[in-house]
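Ticket opened by: R.M.
Priority: normal
Category: complex prediction / small molecule

The reporter submitted a protein together with flavin-adenine dinucleotide and asked that the result be attached to this ticket for the collaborator who will pick it up next week. Submitted input follows.
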Amino acid sequence: MPFFLYLVLWIMNKESLNNEYDIIIVGAGPAGCCVAKFLSNEYNILMIDRSRLPRDRSCGGLMVEEAQDFIKDWKLPKSVFSYPKYLDLKMIDWNNDLEIDIKKKLWNVSRKDFDYWLLKKSQNDVQFSFETKFLQFEKKRKNIEILLEINNKRKVIKTKYLIGANGPFSNIRNSLVKKPMRHYVAAQYWLKHKNIYNSAYFIYDNEITDFYSWIIQKKDNLILGSALEKDSNIKNKMRILRNKFKKKFNITGNVFKKEFAILSRPENKKDIFLGNDKIFLVGESAGFISPSTGEGISFAMRSGYNCAKALNENFEKPFSLYKEFSENLINEIKRKIDKSNALSDPEKRVEMFK
Ligand SMILES: Cc1cc2nc3c(=O)[nH]c(=O)nc-3n(C[C@H](O)[C@H](O)[C@H](O)COP(=O)(O)OP(=O)(O)OC[C@H]3O[C@@H](n4cnc5c(N)ncnc54)[C@H](O)[C@@H]3O)c2cc1C
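Result attached by the on-call engineer:
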C-alpha cells in the first residue's frame, strides 16, 4: 500500500475525539465499514476499532456470490485477491464416501487487504479511532454514554445511536441478550504447499465435527481448517484431521501458523438479534452468519447497508425500518438453518449430495 495512504489514515486517527456524535460504530470489519460507507454525510460519525488497521482477521477469505454481487461495481483491486483468484468448490462427505462439485466460483481474497480496502471505501467524513476499545454503554434519557479505552486511558463520549459491529463476541450484544449464541472454535493451520489446488474443499466428517472442515489454497500456502465444537479437544481433533488429510490428499508439510477464532452458528430465528430503538447490531454481532458454511462477509456487508439505509431514511425512528429491511436476510438464515441441520447429519447428508 502506498505510504501516503498510511499517512492519511494515521492523521485521521490522531484527530482528537469530540464529546458527542450522532452515531458511533464499534468495529471496522465488513459490517461496520458498510454502515460507515452508506450513512449520509450529514451525520457526525465516529468509527472505532480495538485493533490498528490493516489487521489480520482469522478467515478463509472466500467470497460467495452474494458478496461478489454486493461489491460488483466497486472495482475490487487485484492486490486484494489471493492466488488462485477464483476457486471451484468441492464438497466431500467422508462418512458416506461421497463427493460433489458445486458449480460456483468463489473469490479468494486476503482478508486483511479486503477489510482495509473496504475501510478506505467508507465515506470521507467519518472519523476513525483505532486501538480504541469499546468497554460499555449506559442509556440516558436523551442519548447513550459510551465508555472507551484509548492508550490505557478511559473516556466517556455521548452518542444518539450506537452501532454494534464488533463481531462474534460482541460485548454490546452480550449486554442486551441473556442467552448466548452457539459458538464453535474455528481452527486454521497454515502450511507451505507448492501444488496448487484450484478448488476449495468443504469436508464433512462427524468424527471431527458436526459442522465442517476445509482446505483453501492461499498462494503457496494451504489453510487446513475446521469448525469444532467448543468443548471438544480442539488440538486432538486437529491432529486426527491432519492425519486424514495426509492419508487422503497426501498433504504433509510443517505448520507455520495456527489460528483459533470464535465462529457463531445460529440455531434458530431467535439468535438473530437486531438491537433496540437506539442500539443496532449488524453483521456477526446480530447473528448474521450462515450456519451451513460459516459465510459471514456478505451478511455483514448487507446488514451494514440496511442499518445505514434505515438511519438515512428516518433518523428519528429508524429501528422499525431496520427490522423491515432485515427480513430478507433473516429468511435467508432460516433457510440455511434447515440446510445446516441436514448437512450435520450423515444420513440426511446423503440426500444433499445427490
Ligand atoms: C476461521 C474463520 C474462517 C471464516 N471464513 C469465512 C469465509 O471464507 N468467508 C466468509 O464470508 N466468512 C468467513 N468467516 C466469517 C467471517 O469472518 C465473519 O462472519 C465476518 O468477519 C463478520 O464481519 P463483522 O464485520 O460482523 O465482524 P468482524 O469481521 O469480526 O469485525 C469486528 C471488528 O470489531 C472489532 N472489535 C471487537 N470488539 C471490539 C471492542 N470491544 N471495541 C472495539 N472494537 C472491537 C474487531 O477488532 C474487528 O475489527 C470465517 C470466520 C472464521 C472464524
